[in-house]
Structure formats: C-alpha cells, structure tokens
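Lab meeting, item 3. Inverse folding demo.
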C-alpha cells in the first residue's frame, strides 16, 4: 500500500486529552469530535468515550530505527515531574488546564478526564515515519463501553480506533482528505474488551511511508 500521499502536511500541535473541540478555521489546531468525526486533524490526540477516562503513565514518539531505537527518539513524557516532556527534540512548551497526577505503572501518571494537553508537533513528531507507544489505564471496564472511540491520532491521516461493540482495534491510514480513501487494518480484540478498571496495558503503533507498512502492538 502506498502511503506517500497520506502524510504530506506537518502538524502544528498535537494533544493528549478528551474532546479537543471543533475547528474554528483552517489555520487553527483542530481535532475529530468523538461523536461526529470530521474536520482537519492538526493535533496528535487521544480521546475517550463519555464516562471513560484514561490515565497515561508515559508517552513516547520516535522515528523508526532498527539499529538503535533511542537514536530516533523525538519526544518522551514520563509525567514524573509534571506534564513537561522529559525529552523533546522540538519546542517543549506544554499547555494543560488543571492536570491531575496519580500513581502510574512506574512513577507518576497523568489523569485526563475531559481535559487536553497540547504540545508543538514540529520536530517532536515525524509524520513520514515513526512510532507512538504509551502505557494506558482505564477507570472502568472496556467491555462496558459502547461508543467507538479514538485512542490515538498523530496526524489527520492516522487513527487508532477501538470498537467495543465489534471487539475490534483498528489502525487506519487515509489520503489528504479526511475520511477519504481510508485503509483499515484491524485485529479482533476480545482481550481488549476484557481489560478491567485500574489495569495497565501497553499500546504501540508504527508506520513508514517508504515501505508502505504499518503495525500495531
């Protein structure tokens, strides 16, 4: 599959949080609404269904590098000393309203319940080739969730969706027009539906324009 047209625009910011809001104009950061997908994606986002929030113990973005992963690290957020990145190759300025910190998988974690964390994407995110990995914990059983929701979306052309109803985790790539020509890879996620409240789990996605390959773990 040719992904060359999928990742042509450099994002302005990316975000971690719930319900980033609706677009005001084409020049401002926007995101997909969890209830009404659409619009331009210029953030990296993690969104949650109503009555479900996520706790993130760590978040890292890197450029794929089989020889030495650390050499390709672009951004690392441990949340041990607040929400500022522990390492960033770009602007490390973060905007977050009323962040809450709790015990994490190891050290501290940030709890995102209807709030958003924003950080500049330029030089912190490589849309042509990269990986995103995170530790995630939910406040309720996923098997009780009914809405389809997006776990991660590093650009407007990449989305990692979870469909509780169909027990599917879907990794989607699309063309330069949102929702047009999207290609889906998915796996049955019975185990994901069995995630219990308070359990920590690791999620990762990786993509490469040149090879046209993408994977989720």
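The presenter then showed the designed sequence:
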């Amino acid at each position: 599959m040719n992904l060359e047209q999928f990742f042509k625009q450099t994002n302005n910011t990316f975000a971690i949080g719930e319900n980033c809001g609706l677009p005001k104009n084409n020049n401002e950061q926007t995101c997909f609404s969890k209830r009404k997908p659409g619009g331009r994606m210029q953030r990296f986002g993690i969104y949650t269904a109503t009555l479900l929030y996520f706790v993130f113990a760590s978040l890292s973005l890197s450029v794929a590098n089989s020889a030495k992963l650390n050499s390709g690290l672009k951004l690392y957020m441990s949340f041990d000393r607040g929400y500022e990145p522990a390492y960033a190759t770009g602007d490390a300025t973060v905007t977050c309203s009323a962040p809450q910190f709790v015990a994490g998988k190891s050290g501290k974690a940030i709890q995102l319940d209807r709030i958003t964390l924003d950080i500049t994407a330029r030089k912190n995110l490589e849309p042509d080739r990269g990986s995103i990995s995170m530790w995630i914990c939910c406040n309720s059983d996923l098997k009780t969730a009914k809405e389809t929701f997006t776990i991660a979306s590093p650009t407007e052309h990449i989305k990692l969706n979870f469909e509780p109803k169909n027990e599917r985790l879907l990794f989607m790539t699309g063309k330069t027009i949102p929702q047009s020509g999207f290609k889906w890879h998915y796996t049955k996620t019975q185990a994901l539906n069995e995630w219990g409240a308070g359990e920590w789990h690791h999620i990762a996605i990786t993509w490469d324009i040149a090879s046209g390959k993408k994977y989720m773990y």
